[in-house]
């Protein structure tokens, strides 16, 4: 039947080429079209979601063997997502469906998650944008969560091809107005059906009481005070309504430059030292205004720097650290390693994978962020110095580093509720421009920089190195990164608290970070990669990162001293930052690549297997006891079915029962270039042997 037919082909509205091989005749496609429709999966719409356009008889290819197989169905575009509706061949049992995303299906792509759209014309891949004069044979969609979709349009009606391709291009690439985001349609339609989770104790920091509570928790209320001078955003729209400043600072000073040039409190250490941040004053050319600014800053500095009682070290992140352009350029190169069109492309690029990884500099940027956070930690912990972070708007790298320092120094921030409160305090109330940095409105690619994703990647390094210290797993971080592109949560779709407040008059629908179901016991679902992936992404990366930087003597002493002692998971936590210790976040970046997963492998599958063995031992013990009591032979039992551990993947829970390629690590096209066996032996360290897996 067509619904489950496996076919070969390309796509588009043009006549098939003679070389096209099909197991279903074209005339069967049209005669069975009614039957296809009857087999289609129902389109589920969220409150406020509207269907915009659709196309039938679309072939969704699998990524394996050069995209020559797939399943027919319907491709639809709504004001929320692109969805493919076809026969569900990979039905999961009840144990597996508990890991299904409740909002986005396996074949759903939110409009905000679309990264690039390509069309295939005469077997040539070209980017698509604007109005098209010619429509493609195949549509390829690259997603920001690194999924890749291929849709063949060869047997789709020409008018439907025009509508669906034009609709997808327009609704994913055309500049948008903020009020036209689906977030507002959903909020209006769902406001009467939403309820606050009583178990969600995340501190929102939208009241003066929340800030006072945080000051009391960190013992910072002796030297710092919460102020309401910006209530109603009368001082500045970049500031939250409430925040914390040094106690001696007059509130009149806060009003001088719309909150700029003011040291804003982030967190207090157990020894009384504090982490502060400050945005730059407006740039002026007039000498008189410059003198006023200088006098103002001198007064501010004397307020917070009073040796020998109060010593402040400043970190100018705008001039002495990473630039936003560095981060964006590195990630743009890095993500191309995982946007794989098919299995053949994966193996063809395998030989140069590590050199491409090195040239991206993404892992080195992560290492530099962790190193800078350790330096700040050393000043606070060992030197008893306040640290003041300086940045143009104090809303990008300030958010990243202040958050990392707190994760390292404050065990409360390593709990799930504490981490959620940290994100709310430092990123949401800190004014990180999620709307611009994620380019949700498609108005300027220049503003798009994955700063928050970089933060999550840095936290993942800590989780990976010290899993017992955290009350959440890497899966939590992966799902959190996916939530950046789901426009039903207001958390990550505004540039400031002011922008959110003036646009969300109805009940706020923030990200439900607390799970509705009870979480597994700690330690069971510690999703780490197995031995192969650790080798592939860890041991050999030592070549790629320059770990010979000259660290300052006090920093090196602090760093080495901490790592020489047993780890206290309820105290200070430092990451290893040597080259081989900074790894690729496999679960997020490799989860959609079948060749990168090991079926039946990984930490979760191993733990599941141990539990199965324990159950079998208990079962055998019961049989032995029963036999002793009955003094007779027991009837033979049927062999057990395939256990769940064999169906799990090393990239669990994102790669359940996916296809797996057993192709060799070296593609046949590369043998001549590599030379004879002696040459291969000399280059052994360049490759990882998959044969014994």
From TrEMBL:
The keyword Hydrolase does not apply. It holds the Pfam family Myotub-related. Keywords: Cytoplasm, Sarcoplasmic reticulum. This is Myotubularin-related protein 12. Heterodimer with lipid phosphatase MTM1. Heterodimer with lipid phosphatase MTMR2. The gene is MTMR12. GO terms for biological process: phosphatidylinositol dephosphorylation. InterPro entries: MTMR12-like_C (IPR022587), MTMR12_PTP (IPR030576), Myotubularin (IPR030564), Myotubularin-like_Pase_dom (IPR010569), PH-like_dom_sf (IPR011993), Prot-tyrosine_phosphatase-like (IPR029021). The lineage of its organism: Eukaryota, Metazoa, Chordata, Craniata, Vertebrata. PROSITE patterns: PPASE_MYOTUBULARIN. Residues 205-589 form the Myotubularin phosphatase domain. Its main location: cytoplasm. GO terms for cellular component: membrane; sarcomere; sarcoplasmic reticulum. It is found in: Cytoplasm, Myofibril, Sarcomere; Sarcoplasmic reticulum. Acts as an adapter for the myotubularin-related phosphatases. Regulates phosphatase MTM1 protein stability and possibly its intracellular location. By stabilizing MTM1 protein levels, required for skeletal muscle maintenance but not for myogenesis. Belongs to the protein-tyrosine phosphatase family. Non-receptor class myotubularin subfamily. It comes from the Eukaryota. It comes from Neomonachus schauinslandi.
């Amino acid at each position: 039947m067509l619904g489950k037919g496996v076919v070969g082909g390309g796509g588009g509205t043009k006549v098939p080429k003679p070389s096209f091989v099909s197991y279903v005749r074209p005339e069967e496609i049209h005669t069975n079209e009614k039957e296809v429709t009857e087999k289609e999966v129902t389109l589920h719409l969220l409150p406020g979601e509207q269907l915009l356009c659709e196309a039938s008889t679309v072939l969704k290819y699998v990524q394996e063997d050069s995209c020559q197989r797939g399943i027919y169905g319907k491709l639809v575009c709504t004001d929320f997502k692109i969805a493919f509706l076809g026969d569900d061949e990979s039905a999961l049992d009840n144990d597996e469906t508990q890991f299904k995303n409740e909002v986005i299906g396996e074949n759903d792509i939110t409009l905000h998650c679309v990264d690039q759209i390509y069309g295939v014309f005469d077997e040539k891949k070209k980017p698509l944008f604007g109005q098209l004069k010619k429509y493609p044979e195949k549509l390829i969609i690259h997603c920001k969560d690194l999924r890749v979709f291929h849709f063949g349009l060869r047997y789709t009606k020409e008018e439907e091809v025009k509508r669906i391709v034009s609709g997808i291009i327009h609704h994913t690439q055309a500049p948008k107005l903020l009020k036209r985001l689906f977030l507002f349609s959903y909020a209006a339609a769902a406001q009467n059906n939403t309820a606050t989770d009583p178990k969600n104790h995340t501190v929102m920091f939208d009241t003066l009481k929340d800030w006072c509570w945080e000051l009391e928790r960190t013992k910072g209320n002796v030297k710092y005070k919460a102020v309401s001078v910006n209530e109603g955003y009368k001082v500045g729209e970049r500031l939250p309504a409430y925040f914390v400043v040094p106690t001696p600072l007059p509130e009149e000073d806060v009003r001088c430059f719309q909150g700029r040039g003011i040291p804003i409190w982030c967190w207090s250490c157990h020894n009384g030292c504090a982490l502060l941040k400050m945005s730059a004053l407006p740039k002026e050319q007039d000498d008189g205004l410059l003198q006023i600014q200088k006098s103002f800053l001198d007064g501010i500095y004397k307020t917070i720097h009073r040796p020998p009682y109060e010593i402040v070290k400043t970190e100018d992140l705008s001039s002495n650290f990473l630039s936003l352009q560095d981060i964006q350029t590195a990630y743009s190169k890095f993500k191309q390693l995982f946007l794989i069109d098919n299995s053949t492309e994966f193996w063809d690029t395998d030989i140069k994978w590590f050199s491409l990884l090195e040239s991206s500099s993404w892992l080195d940027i992560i290492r530099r962020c962790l190193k800078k956070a350790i330096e700040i930690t050393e000043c606070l912990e060992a030197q008893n110095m306040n640290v003041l972070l300086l940045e143009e708007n104090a809303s990008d790298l300030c958010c990243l580093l202040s958050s990392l320092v707190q994760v390292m120094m404050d065990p409360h921030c390593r709990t799930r509720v504490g981490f959620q409160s940290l994100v709310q305090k430092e990123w949401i109330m800190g004014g990180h421009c999620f709307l611009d940095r994620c380019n949700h409105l498609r108005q300027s690619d220049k503003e798009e920089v994955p700063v928050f994703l970089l933060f999550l990647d840095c936290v993942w390094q800590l989780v990976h190195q010290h899993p017992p210290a955290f009350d959440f797993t890497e899966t939590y971080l992966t799902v959190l990164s996916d939530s950046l592109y789901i426009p039903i949560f207001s958390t990550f779709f505004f540039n400031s608290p002011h922008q959110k407040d003036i646009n969300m008059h109805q009940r706020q629908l923030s990200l439900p970070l607390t799970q509705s179901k009870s979480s597994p016991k700690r330690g069971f679902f510690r999703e780490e990669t197995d031995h192969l992936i650790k080798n592939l992404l860890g041991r050999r990366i030592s070549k790629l990162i320059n770990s010979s930087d000259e660290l300052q003597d006090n920093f090196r002493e602090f760093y080495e001293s901490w790592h020489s002692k047993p780890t206290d998971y309820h105290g200070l936590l430092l990451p290893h930052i040597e080259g081989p210790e900074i790894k690729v976040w496999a679960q997020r970046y490799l989860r959609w690549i079948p060749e990168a997963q090991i079926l039946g492998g990984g930490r979760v599958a191993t733990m599941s297997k141990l539990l199965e063995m324990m159950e079998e031992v208990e079962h055998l013990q019961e049989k032995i006891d029963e036999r002793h009591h009955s003094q007779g032979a027991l009837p033979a039992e049927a062999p057990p079915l395939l256990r769940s551990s064999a169906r799990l993947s090393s990239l669990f829970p994102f790669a359940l029962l996916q296809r797996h390629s057993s192709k060799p690590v070296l593609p046949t096209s590369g043998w001549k270039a590599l030379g004879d066996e002696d040459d291969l032996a000399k280059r052994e360290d360049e490759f990882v042997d998959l044969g014994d897996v």
